[in-house]
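Hallway conversation turned thread

IA: we were arguing at lunch whether anyone had actually written out AmpG family muropeptide MFS transporter end to end. Turns out nobody had. So, for the record, here is the sequence (456 residues) and right after it the C-alpha cells. Reply here if something looks off.
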Amino acid sequence: MTAPEAATQATDKTPTTRISWRDSLAVYLQPRVLIVLLLGFSSGLPLALSGSTLLVWMRESGVDLGTIGLFALVGTPYTLKFLWAPLVDALHVPFFTRAFGRRRGWLVFSQLLLIGAILLLALTDPARSPLFVALGALLVATMSSTQDIVVDAFRVESLPESEQAAGMASYVAAYRIGMLVSTAGALFIVSGFEGTGITRGAAWMWGYVVMAALVLIGTVTALVATEPEQSARAEAATRSDSAFTRVLHAAIGAFSEFVTCRDAFAALAFVVLFKFTDAFSGTMTAPFVIDLGFTRNDYAAIVKGVGLAATLIGGFAGGFVARRYSLAASLWIGGVLQAIANLSFSWLALVGVNQWALAFAITAENFTSAIGTVIFVAYLSALCRNPLHTATQYALLTALAAVGRTYLSSGAGYVAKATGWPMFFAICVLVAIPSLLLLAWLQRRGHFEALGPVKV
C-alpha cells in the first residue's frame, strides 16, 4: 500500500456556492497540488517492483508457483510500517532535516535509500538465488513504505482545505499511474532490452535500473517543494522536547484513539479484510496470464492501455458512488463489485488465449478495484479525526489493510496449484464474505452513522 492506500482527512464543510469548471481546473493546476501529484507517482512506482512485476520475472525464470505465492510475504513492511511511523513523525535525519526541513528531509532520505534498494534487487537472479531476491524485495518494500509515510504526512500538511479534494484525486490517479509504469511499463522496457540481443536476465536487470532512475522524479519534486507550514509549526512547538518524548506522544496518541472507540476491533478487522478479495486474486493474476499462454507484451499492453482507462474511470465512478450514497451503502457496492469481478478471470481460464477476453477481465478487475479503493479511502478518512496524529493513524490503517495483501494472500499460489485457475478465482469471490459479514454487523451497530458525513 501501500497505497493507496492514501487519503486526505474528511472535511466537515460543504461549499454553498457553485464552482465553474474553470475554477475546478485551476485548483488542479495549483503548485501544491502538482507537487502532490508527482509525489503520488513516486509512491505508486515501487509497489509492483517487489510485487507483481517481480512475480512475472520469477515465473519466467522457472520459479515454482508455491514459492511465488510465498513472495507475498515480502510486503511485510507495508503491514508493519505503523511501528516506525512515529519515528518519522518525531525524529530528525542528520544533515537532511537541517538542509531540507522535517518532511522534505525524510522524503529525500527515503527516496535515495529506495533507489539503492531497487538497484540491489536488479542485481539478483530469481533462478539461482530466490533468497537474495526476497531480501532485495524486502528492502525495496521497506524503503517504499517509509516513503509512503512521509508523503501522506506531507500531503495532509501542505494542502489547504480548498485544495484537499483536488490533492487526493491527483495523488490517487498518479499513484495508480506509477503502479502501471512499474508493471506494464517495466515489462515493455524489459522486452525492449531483450530485443537488442542481450540475455533475458540482463534485460530484467536493466529494466529495474530504469525503474530506479524514475524514482528521481519524486526526489526532484521534494527538492523543489517547500516545507509545509504545519510541519514547521509542529517542529517549533516540540523543539524543546526530547526525541523520546516526541516519539512517545505520536505513538500513544494515535493508537489510544483507535482502541478506545466503540467496536474498534471489529472496525480494524474490517479494514484488514475489505480489500482481501482483491489481494488474493491480484497476487496470482500475472502468473495466471503468463501460464495461460499470453506473452509478456500482451499482458503489458492491455494493462497499460485498457487497465489504465478502467482504473481512472473507476476512480471517478467510486467518487460518484461515495457522494451519492451513504458510507455503508457505498462500501456494500464497492465490496460486492470487486468480489464478483474475479469471475471474469474464471471465464478467461475457460476461454483460453483470447485478447478480447483478457481485455474484459483486466477492465473488470481495474474498474471495480478502483471503485472499491476510492470508497475504502473515504472510510479510512472518516476514521482519522485528530489532525495531531493523522500521519501515524494513516500508517496504522493502511498497514492493517496490507495484512490481507501480505499474510493472508501468501497461500494463494498453493491454492491455485491445488484447484486450478477457474476454481481459484471462484474461491477469490468467496473470500470476500467475511468482510461483508463484518460490514453488515458494523452497519447494524450504527458504526457508520457515528462517523458522520464523509466528503470525498
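OS: looked through it. DSSP finds 25 helices and no strands in the chain.
IA: good, adding that to the notes. Residues 1-21 have pLDDT under 50 and may be disordered.
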